[in-house]
Amino acid sequence: MKFLEYVTQNYMYILEKTGEHIYLAGIAVLLACAVGIPVGFMITNNKKVANVVMGVANIIQTIPSLALFAFAMSIFGIGADNAIFALFLYALLPIIKNTLIGIRNVNPSIREAARGMGMSRSQIMFKVEIPLAISVIMGGVRIATVTGIGIATIATLIGAGGLGQLIYQGIGMMDYEMIFAGAICSALLALLADFLLGLVEKNLTSRGIVKQDIIK
Amino acid sequence: MIKLENLVKSYDGKKNVVDNLDLEIKSGELVVLVGESGCGKTTTMKMINRLIEPTSGDILIDAENIKTYDKNELRRNIGYVIQNVGLFPHLTIDKNIATVPMLCKKDRDEINNKVKDLLDLIELPYDEYAHRYPRELSGGQQQRVGVARALANDPDIILMDEPFSALDPITREQLQNELLRLQEDLHKTIVFVTHDIDEAIKLGDRIAVMAEGKIIQYDTPEEILKNPINEFVENFVGKDRLWKTPDMLKAEDIMSKKMVKIGQSRSIAHAIELMKEHNTNVLVVVDKFSEKKNKIVGIVGTNRFKGVGDHSIKMKDIMKSDFVKIPHDMCLVDVLNIRKERKVRFSPVIDEDERLIGIITNTSILNVLAEIVPESEDY
Predict the structure, then answer these.
(1) Do B89 and A213 touch (CB under 8 A)?
(2) Which of A206, B138, B159, B167 could be joined to B172 by an S-S link, Cβ 3.0–4.6 Å?
(3) How does residue A200 score in pLDDT terms, banded at 50, 70 and 90?
(4) Model-wide pTM > 0.80
């Protein structure tokens, strides 16, 4: 009951931190989409480049998040921008990877039919490849978002705020209510974001596509 | 008309997949490119809508070199049907069919009407199927839609790349028949690629048998079956092929040209001599015994002489004159049926001018069949 008390007394503060959290993860994922989806597209036709790009993204993914934040801080100093940059790097891999897989798994005969009917390269991309790959691409965005919200809790260590601030302050002050508030809110945030993106995915995916068709 | 001139395609600069190929496809004809896999038939076809660019040589459509067209523009005006159907799974059937007209930004109402007409044509009721997705259709229905999609922009030319080979045999036959039915009304110029010689013979107005990037023989199915140009074609078509498609064996193919004629005023005695001399049991009675005018008036078999004592009776009095004349282009099946129904042993074959050109006997039929049926197989 002390927990509810804490929440009712500090809801403004919690909301503020939640807002910061959404800002950090949201901007990072949006940027990663803006970069990752086009990159994923561009590398579909070139296996060598694809391997290099995927290799780099994989290496970034293996760096422990705390180390990446610290590394980023040593270059950019402290602040939200810096945290967003690190989160952006983490979000890249799932998005590029899923875009690549989604496009590669488009049945070649469908692409050939499109070409044979006189569709230009960009028409094939927008009218055929993206609609067919959208659920796989969205799957990548969902993974990136959920992990981004999770990792963003560490961003407080480089002064970027967010729900992590509640957790770390709570630890310092031995204030369990505060820790719970930060932890539960970030968990709920991740679930909610995944749910909402799931709805978006469902809306963007044609009824004619069965998911098993495109994911091997 | 599509004209391929000195067409060469090589991927590695050493081996020509398509090797100096010439081909002329007349408007309104269904031409089948047939051959084993790797013979260059698909490559040849894909050069027509520039999915593959030739290494050298030209392709002319109605005397216009296709290099002068914009690639996508060209393809939008050539229907294209592929083996794996390639319908867009995320679009409903009506949208799939409307793809090319939409690319060409045609009027929306016009497109809708066209879609309705085409669904009618392939016998998939609009109300029931237009708003379904491809996965909700059977394989045969999907390929019907594939054909409709190729027709949507009213192209004069349609390319079909093994369109029916992934279907089960029953559905395949249905779709083949439907294609023939459509073609009767539409008279499109169709280039059809298949490895299945049965399909080629069934569908083709003309067949181009290909091997190693070259056309070995380009002719009507009948000619390819009857007069294969070389051993390769003969083996490819299969020596027993004619027997499988007896419609293509005509009376003139199974008749014996060796027949013994006798003038109608000759006597039985003379007839018996002739039969002995030529080792036959049937004579053809002609109005006048001359080589040029062979108007047949009757036939005489040995059975006619039985019990006839007077050997001076003339042919015209004893011959069978109500015999069945077989037109030279009647097919084997009909000939056999007539022979069975009328219980005749000897069937004279006549040409357009009612002139006798041969005679069908049990022996002549057996001789032809013996040639057709491969010797190596035991029946």
Answers:
(1) yes
(2) B167
(3) very high
(4) no
